[in-house]
Design goal:
Layout (H helix, E strand, L loop, with lengths): L6 H4 L18 H4 L28 H12 L10 H7 L7 E4 L11 E6 L5 E5 H4 L6 H12 L19 H11 L15 H4 E5 L6 E6 L4 E6 H4 L6 H12 L1 H23 L7
Antiparallel strand pairs: 1-2, 2-3, 4-5, 5-6
Helix pairs in contact: 3-7
């Protein structure tokens, strides 16, 4: 089996009332759980803005995104069995899932990964090619694994329509990394530009081998190779700063936007000169 439970959890049992024949019991998982426990979980560290200390790297983006989606889409089949652990041990639901490989080698170059559910103790084997597919429905995939493990029907009514695809994990994770450098390396020229709105990264319309970085503050579009953006150890802040310097775009735009402002200030100083000191 692809899913395994540790010894502690595998000994759990459910009491069956004598008045009902075996197999006739049914209940809604959602009715057994306090839904508030799974809402408004703290944001993971990789999604938090770090302008004072920009991160040099964030690591394997599909693994980071997969963990985030699985944590956000809780609860899952039979979670009600493990609520005592949540209450008694103050279990951090925001860190419930981990995606990793078994050895200490380079994560990108292993064909299979382990999805570990630290609340239930289940571990599931997942191919890297699936995880890196932007159309991969990771939530539905995990629900199906859980339903099979608990011998529940695949079309269980409680879990129909619970879905979330991976999307462009590389692009989304790298956007947060790029935003870290706004204050220190390429400050906003638009005063009210929010850091979350400045950058967008997506596939290049011109080539499958490139991504496109859109800088909404500078109104610039910069291509970056797929191999570069998908490097687990890329220092994207440094890369983008060098690209702006090499192209001269930042200096040119800064001059174009600053000189008119300084001229306006100068004209105002002529019209409304400061009074002479007595």
């Amino acid at each position: 089996m692809e899913i395994s439970a540790d010894d502690q959890h595998s000994e759990l049992s459910v009491e069956v009332l004598e008045e009902l024949p075996l197999g006739s019991m049914s209940y809604s998982v959602h009715n057994q759980l306090d839904q508030a426990l799974f809402r408004d979980l703290p944001e993971p560290e990789w999604r938090q803005w770090r302008p004072d200390y920009p991160r040099k790297e964030l690591g394997y983006a599909p693994g980071i995104m997969g963990q985030y989606i699985l944590n956000e889409m809780q609860p899952y089949p039979e979670d009600a069995r493990f609520m005592d652990q949540v209450y008694s041990d103050n279990f951090p639901l925001e860190d419930r899932f981990r995606i990793y490989q078994l050895d200490n080698g380079l994560l990108r170059f292993k064909p299979y990964l382990i999805v570990s559910d630290d609340l239930t103790g289940f571990q599931v084997k997942l191919s890297r090619s699936q995880l890196e597919n932007l159309h991969f429905n990771i939530t539905r995939w995990y629900i199906q694994k859980q339903l099979a493990h608990f011998n529940l029907p695949a079309d269980h009514p409680d879990w129909i329509g619970v879905e979330h695809h991976m999307g462009s994990a590389w692009a989304e994770v790298r956007q947060f990394l790029l935003a870290d450098g706004i204050t220190s390396s390429y400050p906003n020229m638009t005063p009210d530009m929010h850091h979350e709105d400045r950058f967008w990264i997506g596939p290049s319309p011109e080539s499958d081998d490139f991504y496109l970085i859109e800088d909404h503050d500078l109104d610039l579009r910069t291509s970056i190779s797929k191999s570069c953006l998908e490097n687990d150890h890329i220092n994207l802040v440094e890369w983008y700063n060098k690209e702006l310097t090499r192209s001269g775009n930042y200096a040119m735009l800064y001059e174009d936007r600053t000189i008119p402002y300084l001229e306006d200030v100068y004209q105002l100083s002529i019209i409304h000169p400061e009074p002479d000191e007595p």
